[in-house]
Design brief:
This protein is of the alpha/beta class. The protein is built from 13 helices and 13 strands. It has a six-stranded mixed sheet with strand order 5-6-7-3-8-9, sandwiched between helices. A four-stranded antiparallel sheet has the order 11-12-10-13. The chain has a three-stranded antiparallel sheet with strand order 2-1-4, with helices on one face. Helix 5 (about 145-155) crosses helix 6 and helix 6 crosses helix 7 (about 190-200). The two termini are about 30 Å apart. The chain binds adenosine-5'-diphosphate and magnesium ion (MG). Magnesium ion (MG) binds near residues 96, 97 and 136.
């Protein structure tokens, strides 16, 4: 691969919404880009609009991105299957935006290679209208009306002039912005602007949609709306999403990679990442006390842990007395989470233990905290 063509010192400018088609060629014109990486995906141009049958929609192999001496992305390899909602997770500075920028073709890897639907991201002719991008901090042109802006973006993706308005209306309908055609982008609320940017990324029904922090800075209601829109697209395309909200990613993603300081520290299905098929967590409430009785601090001694250890498939049982939580570890294949939950609750209820919550796995948040460092500790 040739050296980078973009300056290495200045931070990247916020990419305009939809810049994937317009900006990529001069940033990363690649000689090798014209060759499909995966010959199976190199169908004639008639297949451009056809849904891809490539099983792996996005593949990164040993991808490195350096800005001068700063290694922003460090030997990242990922395979993202078609139709998945895939999360890119990690603290600030983990390399998520840089990874998105390379997948979108805005930046070129220093080393390694990327395939989007079987093509290098710089192969814009093949990927035009097949990859939609919502860049982090995307800006809308304030004086453009929403309708004309989206029609313009549709035209940049080679959507024919006669089809563009109906395609834009359909996507505005999808984001529940059907009345916004004549609203100036500059007068949209933050939540509405984010939905218009999302509409831009979804124009023309792309096969791969990259959403870099689609809910950041949104109030809970707007973030909820955006999450519903993402969920509604599930199955229609491959979605790659980054977010700071780990509960959100746990809810919407099928699989994810956790990045820390440019490296993948864990990846897999959401159930693998959260150990949902290996652990059950049961939150314990203190026993009821009569008024005036001293506060009760439960310890493991009062819990029927030995009964839990006898359950079929259980390998280990712990009680965390700061979180008031029993953790039952079990052998995948020997037992399933639902079976373990049933038997655990039965044993606890028989032991007069009050239960305030049950979860499968340790939750994405805890997993990410265990795996990543505090970025402020640099
Ligand atoms: N153009 C650039 N020049 C120098 N350093 C950069 C540039 N872009 C990103 N970085 C650095 O690369 C690292 C990864 O950044 P980024 O991909 O934006 O992380 P994230 O999106 O996970 O917060 C950070 O340390 C950031 O400061
Ligand atoms: Mg970022």
């Amino acid at each position: 691969m040739a050296a980078d063509v973009e300056p290495t010192s200045a931070p990247p400018e916020p990419a305009p919404a939809g810049a994937n088609d317009a900006a990529a060629p001069e940033k990363a014109a690649a000689d090798d880009a014209a060759k499909p990486k995966n010959p199976a995906a190199a169908k004639p141009s008639a297949s451009k609009k056809k849904k891809s049958t490539t099983e792996v929609a996005v593949r990164l192999r040993g991808v490195v991105k350096k800005f001068g001496s700063k290694v922003a992305v460090d030997d990242v390899s990922l395979q993202i299957r078609s139709g998945q909602v895939y999360g890119l997770i990690g603290p600030n500075g983990a390399g998520k935006t840089t990874t998105f920028s390379m997948m979108a073709g805005y930046l070129r890897p220093t080393n390694g290679d990327i395939e989007m639907l079987g093509f290098a991201p710089t192969h814009t002719d093949q990927l035009k209208s097949r990859v939609g991008v919502l860049p982090q901090d995307a800006l809308l042109p304030p004086s453009d009306k929403v309708g004309e802006f989206l029609v313009h973006m549709a035209r940049l993706q080679s959507i024919p002039a006669e089809k563009a308005p109906s395609i834009v209306r359909a996507v505005l309908e999808e984001i529940e912005g059907r009345d916004w055609w004549n609203v100036r982008c500059g007068s949209l609320s933050h939540g509405m602007a984010k939905r218009v940017q999302l509409a831009q990324a979804l124009l023309g029904d792309p096969e791969v949609v990259l959403l870099d922090e689609p809910t950041s800075g949104l109030d809970p209601r707007s973030a909820y709306d955006v999450r519903q829109l993402i969920k509604a697209r599930k199955g229609r395309c491959t979605l790659i999403v980054s977010s700071h909200n780990l509960q959100e990613l746990e809810e919407i993603c099928d699989a994810a990679a956790i990045l820390d300081r440019g490296k993948v520290v864990a990846s897999g299905s959401m159930s693998e990442l959260t150990a949902a098929s290996e652990e059950v967590h049961v939150k314990i409430a203190p026993p009821l006390r009569a008024a005036g009785e001293a506060p009760y601090r439960r310890n493991a001694a009062g819990l029927p842990l030995s009964k839990l250890r006898e359950l079929h498939g259980v390998t280990r049982v712990e009680y965390d007395d700061t979180r008031h939580e029993i953790v039952v570890h079990f052998e995948r294949g020997q037992a399933d989470a639902e079976g373990i939950i049933g038997q655990t609750l039965w044993a606890l209820l028989n032991g007069q233990v009050r239960i305030s919550g049950v979860t499968k796995g340790r939750g994405l948040e805890k997993r990410v905290m265990d795996l990543t460092d505090d970025p402020d500790q640099d």
